[in-house]
Amino acid sequence: MGDTHAELRRAVGMTMDNYANEDMAASLPALAGGLLPHPELMTRFREAFLYRKRENIAAALRRGIQRGDLPHDLHIDLVQDIWAGAIPYRRLMTGSPLNTDLAEHLVQLATRTPPLLPRRKAEVRPITEP
Asked: In 3-state terms, the chain is what percent helix, strand and coil (to 5)?
């Protein structure tokens, strides 16, 4: 068993915790930016830090799928990208609070019915002019 909503709130909370401290909030983007021109170092950073954190979140999302609480075709990578992008953006760029309301809204992107996020195999149609 398990509680998908609670697991996902914890996952979002862990990401928010990374940015709660001012030094950490400024250090992570600076570190990534500094490593970007060095592909071999960036690869090592991703393997040692990023992929481990993402796997923990992906595992929680997969458990939610197995329980039937999330759609079987949920785009796990996109959910993580949205969470990981929204949190530092709010913290560093807009100064908006990282609070329980934000955590709840981010979780609802994945759990709400009808779904708010596109699914993995959704057909993307080009925009045509009338």
From this structure: 70, 0, 30
From first to last of the 130 residues of the chain, give the pLDDT tens digit: 689 999 999 999 988 988 888 888 888 889 989 999 999 999 999 999 889 889 999 999 999 999 999 988 889 999 999 999 999 999 989 988 899 999 999 999 888 866 566 666 655 445 555 4
Residues 18, 20, 23, CA angle at the centre, nearest 5°? 80
In whole angstroms, give the CA distance from residue 30 to residue 61. 29
Query: What single-letter DSSP state applies at residue 125?
Result: P
Statement: the pTM of the whole predicted model exceeds 0.85: no
Tokens matching residue 60 = 């929680």
Q: Which regions of 38-121 does DSSP assign to beta strands (E)?
A: none
Q: Which of 101, 56, 110 is nearest to 83 (CA)?
A: 110
Contact, 9 vs 104, CB < 8 A? Answer: yes
